[in-house]
Write a structure and sequence with these properties.
The chain has about 120 residues and is α+β, with helices and mostly antiparallel strands. It is built from three helices and seven strands, in the order ββββαααβββ.
Length: about 120
Amino acid sequence: MGRISRCLEFDGNGRFESELITDIGIIEKGDYEIIDNKLILTYDLVDETEFVKEDYEMFEIKKNEGLSFEEYYEVSTGVKIGERLKREFIILKHKNMKLKLKNLKTKKRIMLKKNCS
């Protein structure tokens, strides 16, 4: 696999688009808001129940691990069925061309550079 990067585009009206650039491109969209020094990204709802259900049945999760489908879905996707993925970041530094963020959940730091390409 080659270089991996992520490009975030904010429209100024509360919507964002995220493109994960690898050997293939993955586009995700959602809402964003900035409250004090916090950036909150709320991704559009993606229904993965059919995909997760196939794994759940194929690996006999209920029998082998004792998890309900709802529990397995949350473990697999990180969200509950019908819930939107939310990522929260603290804004550490904001300069003209750079934005340093820290993910509140994972504590990982990332830097965004203006005009990603």
